[in-house]
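If your schedule permits, I should be very grateful for your opinion on a structural question. Please examine both parts with care and let me know of anything in them that strikes you as inconsistent. The record follows directly beneath this note:
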Amino acid sequence: MLIARLIADTATRETRLDALAVALRAQGIALATADLLADGETLELRFSDGAAETVLAALDRFFAPADMLVSQGPITLPQVFVSDMDSTMIGQECIDELADYAGIKPQIAAITERAMQGELDFSAALRERVALLEGLEQGAISACLAERIRPEPGARTLVATLAASGVRTVLVTGGFHHFADPVGSMLGFDRVVGNRLEVAGGRLTGRLVGEITDSAVKAAVLREEAAGGRISLATGDGANDIPMLSAATYGFAYRAKPKARAAANGRIDRGDLTAVLGLLGIPRNNWCEG
């Protein structure tokens, strides 16, 4: 049984639902039931057969912009949550904001955007950007954290609610521990995985310390945390998140780049991060403020 959950504008919902059913029937997919969940906002659709990709494409066609999740079986509470940081749990790309303190934000941001779109090798692009920060005073990191870095709407509630439900939470980022550790602490994550900037004499050296946290490492962290068949949830937005999103039971692309969005079986395009809670079926009166 293929199950889809959808949060979309309610105007003409029934008309669009009828059009969805007709379009999918033409592709051999029958809509079995359509029910509004107890929150009065989330629509659950059940299909007797079909591919998740086909249903996602049809939901996009008739309901975009919307928040959605398509699952091959019953949707249940995950046991582990693994999330990207930049442009997902926080609204910024830390390296771009840090580069502004060095006066080279446009140059670095252009490389970041191409890496997120999947046009550049992530590790090479990261090393290139970090090298451009050579000589920047370490104090710029603290200033950047205080002045620029803010959580995405719903991030605190999402993490706090999952944690209160017994879900293990992990922040894994292609960014830097200098940012991820305080962000992880602020949002309440149990574990943080990221890259380390090398610092000497109070300044950045333009190099990294240790292994780079790239797409393969992100996916490996998810598989490690989900070992033993644990139900997993992941959120991300860029090409570096694709293997992690694909490996998760519920992989949510949050306001994501096209390649990452296409790889996910969950998509948040309309609401904030609390839409994940609604699509998982967690009642609003069980949500926790972080």
